[in-house]
């Protein structure tokens, strides 16, 4: 394992149940030297302060709708060489930190970003991406089994995702941390652009996986339908003022308006929004953009050293176990696995039915990784719809698929 100390920072507001599950997953991380910093509203503070799995959390009270300011506050209290960020509605794989911070062994690497799995636990929400001068992301092909270190050409940046990223603390402090003008949108994009301007390299790490659940918030519903577009408009206005020449801003804004309208119309066609909702949300987008033209922006003044000493989590080496069962035995197997988790193991239960159902992965509230699906069905969504196999062969294949991120080792 790396000898770099790591501070894992989690910002939480109004989602105590999601935070509780996130902290349970963090407690299973197989990395020797890390601390946990939770920046949260009163509900989240209550969860963090009562966490039985992580009794040494640094709990910082903050109850404003500004993720950049909250992350900066976490950075002030974080004492690790590396600061890693994960959202409260996400859960990291047990080997997340091990893979994510390994590239920091190279002194030229200032930032690291992992891959993000979507709500079904199988599909990828985000993989490797770069940013163009307009702030638009573009997919990039990299080796899927090892980290790739990238230095962007002039005018471009390497994209890290807010729910799965890490930075050298001294570098992030030196560039001013997160700009509070980006209250929830484009916050990490702005950091990526400033890192690129400063000439820093970023490592993209496919095996550093986080599962993102998309819990509801003030800005979006459980089904990912937006509740408000004000801060998106404001953030684009700030971004333009920082990075886009004046003569190009009008055309750039028309592109953003079209993209948001298409997104809303898609939800309307699917029955998730009504026409009046589309009109209201587009008005909020325009109002945010107008306010963003006047919003103050700039890097924060952050202390070079943390205000609290490093407070490591008591490391517990956990045995990673994999159990496959046939459909009807799933409930009993999961209940038994939950008891073993409480005793200090990492448990994966594969429940296979004699169907071609697509597979889904869930990290339960009791800390068990559960994968359900058909014996003949898809796991990775680029696989055939139907594959003839046996229970033993399918179990072996699914175990191998997750082995590196779950820490299962050889079968």
Shape: globular
Strand content: 15-25%
* Total separate domains: 3
Rg, nearest Å: 22 Å
- The top-level CATH class of the largest domain is Alpha Beta
Give the CATH H-level superfamily of the largest domain.
Spore Coat Polysaccharide Biosynthesis Protein SpsA, Chain A
What's the β-strand tally? 17
Query: Given the structure, what is the number of helices?
Result: 11
Show unreliable segments: none
Helix content: 25-40%
Main sheet summary: 10 strands, mixed
What is the structural class? alpha/beta
Oligomer: single chain
| CATH-assigned fold name of the largest domain | Spore Coat Polysaccharide Biosynthesis Protein SpsA, Chain A
Order of helices and strands: EHEHEHEEHEEEEEEEHHEHHHEHEEEH
Output mean pLDDT.
95
CATH architecture of the largest domain: Alpha-Beta Complex
Q: Alpha-carbon distance between the termini?
A: 22 Å
Key words describing this protein structure:
single chain; 411 residues; alpha/beta; Spore Coat Polysaccharide Biosynthesis Protein SpsA, Chain A; 10-stranded mixed beta sheet; 4-stranded mixed beta sheet; 17 strands; 22% strand
Explain this structure to me?
- Helix 1 (16-27) runs parallel beside helix 2 (42-49), helix 7 (230-243) runs parallel beside helix 9 and helix 8 packs antiparallel against helix 9.
- The model has no long low-confidence stretch (mean pLDDT 95).
- Strands 1, 2, 3, 4, 5, 6, 7, 10, 12 and 13 form a ten-stranded mixed sheet that branches.
- The chain has three domains: 6-212, Spore Coat Polysaccharide Biosynthesis Protein SpsA, Chain A (Alpha-Beta Complex); 230-292, no CATH class; 319-406, no CATH class.
- It has 411 residues and is an alpha/beta fold.
- It contains eleven helices and 17 strands.
């Amino acid at each position: 394992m790396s000898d770099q100390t790591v501070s894992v920072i989690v910002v939480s507001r109004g989602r105590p149940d999601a935070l509780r599950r996130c902290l349970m997953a963090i407690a299973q991380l197989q990395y020797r030297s890390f601390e946990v910093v939770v920046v949260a509203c009163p509900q989240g503070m209550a969860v963090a302060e009562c966490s039985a799995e992580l009794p040494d959390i640094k709990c910082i009270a903050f109850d404003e709708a500004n993720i950049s300011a909250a992350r900066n506050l976490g950075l002030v209290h974080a004492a690790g060489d590396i600061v890693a960020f994960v959202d409260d509605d996400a859960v990291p794989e047990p080997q997340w930190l091990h893979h994510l911070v390994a590239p920091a062994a190279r002194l030229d690497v200032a930032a690291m970003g992992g891959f993000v799995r979507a709500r079904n636990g199988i599909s990828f929400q985000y993989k490797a991406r770069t940013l163009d001068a307009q702030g638009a992301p573009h997919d990039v092909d990299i080796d899927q089994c090892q980290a790739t270190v990238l230095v962007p050409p002039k005018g471009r940046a390497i994209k890290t995702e807010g729910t799965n990223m890490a930075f050298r603390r001294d570098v992030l402090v030196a560039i001013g941390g997160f700009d509070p003008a980006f209250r929830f949108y484009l916050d990490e994009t702005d950091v990526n652009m400033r890192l690129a301007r400063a000439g820093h390299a970023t490592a993209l790490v496919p095996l550093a996986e986080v599962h993102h659940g998309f819990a509801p918030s003030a800005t979006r519903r459980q089904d990912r339908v937006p509740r408000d577009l004000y801060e998106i408009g404001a953030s684009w206005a700030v971004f333009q003022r920082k990075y886009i020449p004046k003569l190009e801003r009008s055309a750039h804004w028309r592109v953003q308006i079209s993209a948001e309208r298409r997104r809303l119309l898609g939800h309307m066609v699917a029955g998730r929004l009504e026409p009046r909702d589309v009109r209201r949300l587009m008005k909020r987008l325009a109002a945010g953009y107008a306010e963003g033209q006047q919003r103050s922006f700039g890097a924060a003044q952050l202390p070079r050293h943390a205000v609290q000493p490093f407070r490591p989590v008591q490391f517990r080496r956990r045995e990673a176990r994999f159990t496959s069962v046939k459909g009807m035995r799933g409930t009993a197997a999961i209940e038994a696995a939950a008891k073993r988790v409480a005793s200090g193991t990492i448990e994966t239960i594969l429940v296979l039915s004699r169907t071609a159902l697509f597979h889904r992965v869930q990290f339960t509230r009791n800390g068990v990784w559960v994968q359900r699906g058909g014996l003949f069905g898809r796991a990775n969504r680029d696989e055939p719809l139907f594959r003839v196999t046996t229970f033993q062969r399918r179990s072996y294949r699914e175990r191998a698929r997750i082995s590196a991120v779950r820490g299962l080792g050889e079968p």
